[in-house]
Design goal:
17% strand, five-stranded parallel beta sheet, kinase, ATP binding, single chain, three-stranded antiparallel beta sheet, Rossmann fold, alpha/beta
Length: 224
């Protein structure tokens, strides 16, 4: 079974996707982390973020992998755990450019579909329901106000121990800019699939969002 959860930055996709995957004993695939890892690889190898060929070669050399350590999913580039490093403001500011490259998207989508074809998955991103898994049994599109998403990102930085000099207003600006880039890119732009259920998480708790999505999954399972 394939469950697709899409939406803009910091709408709560990863948080609820992890919980739902755990509750259903499905595999969680964080596609955003894969694009962030690609961006990290480019930065670490001093490759221009627009150099598609150079980044692809570096990805082939480094290899992006998900591994489970102490019950938690980690992402690696080569043998290095980069789970924390890919969440820094610098990576956030440049991941849209890298993820918009046709060759990068083609490579990541191929990997994502391969994973989804072998197991029950909960996959989150920006184009899962429209491009990666267009036939997913359940499609969810999460939205939230820019202000609430900025507050979540600030909280996430603190919880992860990521130091940032950015103010809340600056984070809001970055998120709004990311929204524009993601929704206006030519290849697989951020948009709601026609058959997706939209959920506004602005005033909802994580538990409420999870229960709402689980309800949609139960409805789908009854139809199967």
């Amino acid at each position: 079974m394939q469950i697709a959860i899409d939406g803009p930055a910091s709408a709560g996709k990863s948080t609820v996707a992890k919980i739902i995957a755990h509750k259903l004993n499905f595999t969680y695939i964080d596609t955003g982390a894969m694009y962030r890892a690609s961006t990290w690889i480019a930065r670490e190898n001093n490759i221009n973020y627009g150099d598609e060929k150079g980044i692809l070669a570096a990805i082939d050399h480094e290899q992006i992998e998900f591994k489970f350590k102490n019950g938690q999913q980690k992402i690696y580039a080569g043998n290095k755990d980069i789970t924390q490093e890919i969440r820094t403001p610098d990576i956030s500011a440049n991941v849209s450019q890298v993820s918009a490259l046709a060759g990068i998207r083609e490579k990541m989508v191929s990997l994502q579909r391969h994973m989804a074809g072998e197991m029950n998955v909960v996959m989150d991103g920006r184009d899962i329901g429209t491009t990666v898994l267009p036939h997913a049994a359940v499609k969810i599109f999460l939205v939230a106000s820019v202000h609430s998403r900025a507050e979540r990102r600030m909280k996430d930085f603190k919880e992860r121990g990521i130091k940032t000099s950015q103010s809340l207003a600056e984070i809001e600006h970055d998120i709004a800019e990311r929204d524009y880039k993601d929704s206006h890119r030519q290849l697989s732009p951020l948009k709601k699939a026609e058959d997706a259920t939209e959920i506004d998480t602005t005033s909802m708790t994580i538990d409420q969002v999870v229960e709402t999505i689980l309800s949609e999954i139960k409805k789908s399972q009854k139809k199967l």
